[in-house]
Amino acid sequence: MPKKDVYLSPIPLLFTGCNGISLVADHYGSATGTPVLLLHGGGQTRHSWLGTAQRLAQAGYRVISVDARGHGDSAWADDGDYSADTMVGDLRCIIEQLDAAPILVGASMGGLTSMVAVGEGHTPSALALVLVDIAPRTEVSGVARIITFMSANPQGFATLEEVRDAIAAYNPNRPPPKDTSGLKKNLRLGDDGRYRWHWDPRFLDYAPTKNQGETLTSIERRLAAAAKVQIPTLLVRGANSDVVSHEGAQELKALIPHAQIVDISGAGHMIAGDRNDVFAETILSFIRDNL
User: Fold this and answer.
1) CATH number of the domain located at residue range(s) 7-137+219-290 in this protein
2) CA distance 288 to 61
3) d(Cα 41, Cα 215) in Å, to the nearest integer?
4) Which of 163, 178, 214, 240 has CB 3.0 to 4.6 Å from 210, enough for a Cys bridge?
5) Where are the domains of the chain?
6) 94 CB neighbour count, 10 Å cutoff
7) Spatial distance between the Cα atoms of 87 and 113, rounded to a whole number of angstroms
8) Residue 182 above 70 pLDDT?
9) What is the pLDDT of residues 50-102, one digit of tens each?
10) What is the dihedral angle through the alpha carbons of 264, 172, 39, 199, rounded to the nearest 10 degrees?
């Protein structure tokens, strides 16, 4: 049983990002433990970390799961700016509002943001970096499949069952939920009665697919930032990932020689959803061994 001061249900938080934008977050766990910042991927929300957040909270950490700008309940950028520099700026602002240096856990977009922020020295402080199925070089086909999924159905969905079926088509290895009501956390219901994803469509303006699988940041910038990461680093890769290949993981290792790499069997790009039990324990083991 968790201690009385450990909260496994989310407590809402509000951060201020670049240019005063409001960023919504959930806090789990101890009020005084080492902070762990959970940063989701593009098109996701803070709710994608629920199982991971609760497991880390049980271990005594102060877990903070943040909705990126334009995602979930965070504000949309008035000027439509979802560039890498602005995302990095938001992360810097969040860390400045904490009272202790955090462990950064970033999936896909959140991982790229964290890696660039750490490597370029934009973070005031960070204890460790966990990259969740993201590396400087990604696979063109896997990135294109994500963008195709996010770009589909711009008119939304008539029912939650349609949403469930779209997700199942993208990730056929994960059993679809029997109860579709949980999908509402990742959706917004429009005045026309249709469900749409809970993120600003203008975000896709910053997610082009190029010949090296680039999104948000150039490959040159990623490589340069990775080479300057000095803090303990872990890459957790889905063994079935079509976004980060074995070669991509090894290139990361060459850039960050002290980095540890763990492949999670039975998981694809969405590791936390595919194998949360193994994923959470992998992170905990890394933290205990390195901090």
Assistant:
1) 3.40.50.1820
2) 12
3) 12
4) 214
5) 7-137+219-290, 143-201
6) 22
7) 6
8) yes
9) 999 999 999 999 999 999 999 999 999 999 999 999 999 999 999 999 999 99
10) 170
